TrEMBL record:
Pfam families per the UniProt record, alphabetical: Isochorismatase
Record-annotated Isochorismatase-like domain positions: 8-149
Signal peptide: none
The organism of origin for this protein: Pseudomonas haemolytica
Keywords tagged on the record: Hydrolase
Gene3D superfamilies: Isochorismatase-like
Molecular function, one GO term: hydrolase activity
SUPFAM superfamilies in alphabetical order: Isochorismatase-like hydrolases (SSF52499)
Keyword Hydrolase appears in the UniProt entry: yes
Keyword flag Hydrolase: yes
Superkingdom per UniProt: Bacteria
Protein's recorded name: Cysteine hydrolase
Taxonomic path: Bacteria, Pseudomonadati, Pseudomonadota, Gammaproteobacteria, Pseudomonadales
């Protein structure tokens, strides 16, 4: 892998307190937050652009409904005052948020994406980023998901859902790397 661009942006998706809600079920990758913190610390040291994405639900019963603790960023991943915050109402962080314009205005062409949920907001955002022509890198071990029941009632372990989602993204939309590989080339 060639070195990252000096202005490569770190995009952290939906690392909100509500992701710890037991109603979401069993998750994979218990070290994801540690890897996200490693990326965040490296980006802060290098003074690279950082974007924190927060999901704001339109449903009053959601853990991400505004004003509830679940909607707030996790304590260890709080944005600093100068770091950009994007609020979204759908899984894709590019939809109706101004994110694409914000990136183009700053001539940012490369994105490193981490966060949750791998097969939902991460996948939707990565697909759009790739389709829009950004050089997207997904930090595989800095993402996680939850067990998922398919339409036939079969329960898929979070590990399988995560692996398949990352494989889908690696086909056409992004490079999928581990945090260590990204940090080595930053």
């Amino acid at each position: 892998m060639e070195p990252l661009a000096m202005n490569a942006a770190l995009l952290i998706i939906d690392m909100q307190k509500g992701m710890g809600n037991p109603s979401l079920g069993r998750r994979n990758n218990p070290d994801a937050e540690l890897h996200i913190q490693q990326l965040l610390n490296a980006w802060r040291r290098a003074q690279r652009p950082i974007i924190h994405v927060r999901h704001i639900s339109r449903s009053p019963v959601s853990v991400f409904w505004p004003g509830q603790p679940g909607c707030e960023f996790q304590d260890a991943l709080q944005p600093l005052a100068h770091e950009h915050v994007v609020e979204k109402n759908v899984p894709d962080a590019f939809i109706a948020t101004g994110l694409e314009r914000w990136l183009h205005t700053r001539s940012i062409k490369q994105l490193v994406i981490a966060g949750v949920i791998t097969n939902n907001s991460v996948e939707a955002t990565v697909r759009s980023g790739g389709n829009l022509g950004f050089d997207v890198i997904v930090a595989a071990d800095a993402c996680f998901t939850f067990d998922q029941t398919d339409l036939s009632g079969r329960l898929w372990p979070a590990e399988d859902v995560h692996a398949l989602s990352l494989s889908n993204l690696a086909m056409d939309y992004a490079r999928v790397l581990h945090t260590g590989e990204i940090l080595t080339n930053s």
